Amino acid sequence: MHTQPEQIDRIRSMHIPTAVWLADDPYYTDVMKPIVTHYDYVFTMKQECVSFYQNAGCERVYYLPMAADPQLFRPRHVSLAESAILALSVRGSGIKSHGWMKLLPK
Known about the structure:
By secondary structure, the protein is of the alpha/beta class. The protein has helices spanning 5-13, 29-36, 49-55, 80-85, and strands at residues 19-22, 41-44, 61-63. The relative contact order is 0.14.
């Protein structure tokens, strides 16, 4: 996170609503816990993290999952050859500690 809590506090002091969408939950809840209380609104992509942030002192926490256009992204049947090509699909951040990067060739 590049924005410091002090910056968020300054923005809020100007009566500008602030929000953060935590797209890497639950991997960084320990890092984000002291930061999220500085925001007016907290959005998380993991439903189980809503109560975590509420217990941390956030009043307005909402579940906001990642979305997709069902006309473009929808389940479909693929052949065995296609499934081999589609075997690895990566979503989320490129954080090495998540483990999926170990699967990629060096």
